[in-house]
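Before we proceed, please read the two lines closing this message. Report back on whether the structure tokens fit the sequence:
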Amino acid sequence: MARYPQQIVVVGGGMVAHRFVEAMRDRDSDGRHEITVLAEEPRPPYDRVALTSYFTGRDPQELNLGADELWADPLVTLKKNTAVASIDRTAMTVTTRCGATYGYDHLVLATGSYAAVPPVEGSDLRGCFVYRTLDDVADLRGYVEQLRRDRPGRTVRGAVIGGGLLGLEAAGALQALGAEPTVVEFAPRLMPLQVDEGGGQELRRLIESLGVSVRTGTATQRVLGSGCTKQVTGMEFADGENVDVDVVVFATGVRPRDELARAAGLVVGERGGVVVDSACTTSDSAISAIGEVACIEGRVWGLVAPGYTMAEIAADRLLGGLSSFPGADTSTKLKLLGVDVASFGDAFATTPGALEVVYSDPVTGTYKKLVVSDDAKTLLGGILVGDASSYASLRPMLGRDLGGHQSAYIVPTIDGASSPLATLELPDDAPVCSCNNVCAGTIRSVLDDDPKATLADVKACTKAGTSCGSCLPTVKKIFETQQERAGITIDTALCEHMPMSRSQLFNAVKVSGLTTFSAVIERFGTGRGCDICKPTIANILASLGGGHILDGEQGTLQDSNDHLLANLQKDGTYSVVPRIPGGEISPDGLLVIGQVAKDFGMYTKITGGQRIDMFGARIDQLPAIWKRLVDAGFESGHAYGKSLRTVKSCVGQSWCRYGVQDSVRMAIDLELRYRGLRSPHKLKLGVSGCARECAEARGKDAGVIATENGWNLYVGGNGGATPRHAQLLGQDLSDDELVRAIDRFFMFYISTAERLQRTAPWLEELDGGIDHLRAVVFDDELGICDDLDAMMSNHVATYSDEWRDVLEDPAKLAQFTGFVNDATDVDPDLLYVVEREQIRPATTQERRLGEAGELELVDSNRRPVMIAGTTLEVRA
């Protein structure tokens, strides 16, 4: 008879180990097991899938998995920085490298894998990295940043050996660090295990369009280095060609960390990995192996979903269950360098008689393939590149009859027809969340038990949508369908103080004519408001011409950026962006901006919207900076607001030999018309003078492309985290027709969109889609065009520069002051490093070096400083 509590020792502290501990504590209600986790890394388990977010400024602690309460559980002990050296199966103990011994009743091996480095000469040179752990990516980041400091003005050239999932992630990391990456792949295409030749070609086009060089069918012979530091200087390929590189990242796969198991005499697979049965038990019944170290069904699975399944099975078996490994779901959906890629089921059509239905559009950067059975009824697999929005609905239908013509699921709809995906309903046993092994019926059962459960309740109860997140659209669709069937109205309230949605509130405020927050909340809401409804109502009032955003009560409602008419930066200073319509600026204007930036010691950068951003202004400096700019004819560029940002343009017909229309003039006209237009989210426009599309108009909320006969108008394009190509709204429009169409499009969007909803998702959710919008804008199908025109006319007539208004109003100007008792212009919190002849905020490590006198830091006036405690002294 087993003694309790049983001692469970887990070797490894990764994602799968975390899932095992979580499963044990969720199910072991009697507390019959005490769990000790021996983690080699100096931190708790973290989301290794999201490593690349570390390069975009995300705090590493935000990657930590689960709640802190799990590790505070008295039945769970987490030992960090604890590497296991050996296993004694007879004594049933493990010994750490530090000599500590832990006894176990059951041992769980979750040691994962390590990054494989091919036998390439020079792979040990300084500047060679792998891409596996947080320490790996931190080392890579530090090295690249040091290269940039040591070689100001010189481009850092990076190479990634391996063009799979990890390789493209690494390329994105290098690009985020400011390096120029090249991906070197031995196979004839990128991601050879996930996409076919057609998908690989489209993926390569998309990746290269983002500034990443790609070399396929290329073998690396050796890494070159020179100097006493043995630092990377280049690469030599098998064909004898040499290229110059400064840093090399190996992303050529992983190998299971099975050395402990081998030394303990456990059976391992032919290609590595600890052999386990369907219960995840090794050749020793007192030891389980889960995740990437386990060899199950004859292979090692390098994906998190099978690892999570193994963790659940091992926990269930320890608690007396009979679950067994059901096979691995190898489906993947990722966003690599901003490009959606998905692969599921029999993606390469290996099933006898399988048919392939392919849709490819290189213009929009889209490749879609469905693999179906020989009778064209059953879905067997698929590949999606560029647009993977249908993945969440299609993957659960593997092995099932889709019904109808299969091509309808991947070919864009026309004539207002809806995609069959919109009405597709999953059977109860269809898998929805592969990461957590949740089917559609499980989600429905939660709502059957508690019809009032929220979407957050469903996620917490089932864990669906809490890992990679790719299944969230499907989870939400099931949730909303069940709510409707139960007769429950889906709550669209803006917040607890406002029962209306943003679009409902907009029209209520418009019809009622209310002009203050107090009046709106008194008539339509309750309480005193919150950080959701206050800025939303402020935005609505501004959209309806409610005066300056800092007037009276309005000023207390704004987000921090709107409140100070400038963008808050990471060090507490602000950036200033004057408007430069169409990107056109005179030499005198350039000189003014340059002199202002120089006088105030600001960092300057050309933005993606063809403007100049000046960073590093203190609050009290903002009015003085604005005055200099306003006096020179500049005005606010509204970079801080949910409003029109920029209208990007190419040089057009005026200078370019390919231009067929004056794109600069049109861009300037549009920017001056829509400047200051407040909306649910930021708005960006682009105007290209010919079909070569140098202004990237089809990635904008409204994109204009010149034709021989006028202008084509595209709408609903977005960049950002979820890029969308704009859709064609009108063709060969005259100048007047174009402006009128954009007027109506913007005002219809502003009137009907929800809070923080960009034009792309708004258009996707619009009943009838682009065809309905076309009917509204051009045919006045809803009979509201006169109203939309009047709204825009009112905006144009009442526009006033917000910076100038502040400068002319003493009450508003008084808000822009430093601390009353601050008699110095030196703020000890603002320390900078001079890099490439400009300043940037010093990191925590650089501040420590400055305190130790090992690195020269400067204040916001670029004066070298000495640090003494919390005070600064300007060096002589």
Observations:
- The two ends are 80 Å apart (CA to CA).
